[in-house]
Amino acid sequence: MRMGEGVEWGLHCCLTLAWLGGEPVPAARLAAQFDLPPAYLNKRLQALVRAEILTSTPGARGGFRLARPPAKITLMDVVAAIEGPEDAFRCAEIRQRGAGTGTPAGEFRKRCGIDAAMRRAELAWRRELASQTIADLMDTAPPRAADRVRRWHSTD
User: Fold this and answer.
1) pLDDT per residue over 52-86, tens digit each?
2) What is the reported pTM?
3) Which H or E run contains 121?
């Protein structure tokens, strides 16, 4: 499974916003923290707003903040907001084309074994991401990470 870099960016921004404790942070400031293109990051942050993971406050003193406590935001929430809710694997039933053309329909009543295996793997992956929260990331981060982020954001 391959996810876009926007997932990493979104997760790091959520972690940063959790450590900063509620003050709105402009997208440009978050982009500067990670040396990312502001316009591209802003699109990812807007996806998190639409998913009600972040809130956005307009204006000169505006920016982004978490919409819920870190313990109520799962990694799967962020992945789905950035990547979309679609399944990673989509069976196109190619077994029924080419050499399978003309095969009696009864042979295809049972779900494709490849589709079933891929679905099981994806469900396990989704369950794992849904079982971890931004609060869990906070708990497992290096000891000085939160202080480093707070210091960086306090120096404008």
Assistant:
1) 999 999 988 899 999 999 999 999 999 999 999 88
2) 0.87
3) helix 113-130
Q: Is 142 helix (H, G, I), strand (E, B) or coil?
A: coil
Contact indicator for 11, 78 with CB cutoff of 8 Å: yes
- In a 3-state reduction of DSSP, which class is residue 133? strand
Q: Give DSSP secondary structure letters for 49-101.
A: HHTTSEEEE-STT-EEEESS-GGG-BHHHHHHHHH-SS-S-----GGGSGGGT
The pLDDT tens digits for 37-47 are 999 999 999 99
Q: What is the mean pLDDT of the chain?
A: 92
Q: What is the mean pLDDT of residues 111-134?
A: 93
Query: Is residue 108 within 8 Å of residue 95, measured between CB atoms?
Result: yes
Residue 65, Ramachandran bin (φ over 0: left; ψ between -120 and 50: alpha; else beta): beta
Could you tell me what percent of the chain has a pLDDT over 70?
A: 99
- Give the separation between CA 136 and CA 140, rounded to whole angstroms: 6
Q: How far apart are CA 130 and CA 153, in angstroms?
A: 29
Residues 6 or more apart from 66 whose CB is under 8 A from it?
Answer: 14, 17, 18, 22, 53, 54, 55, 73, 134
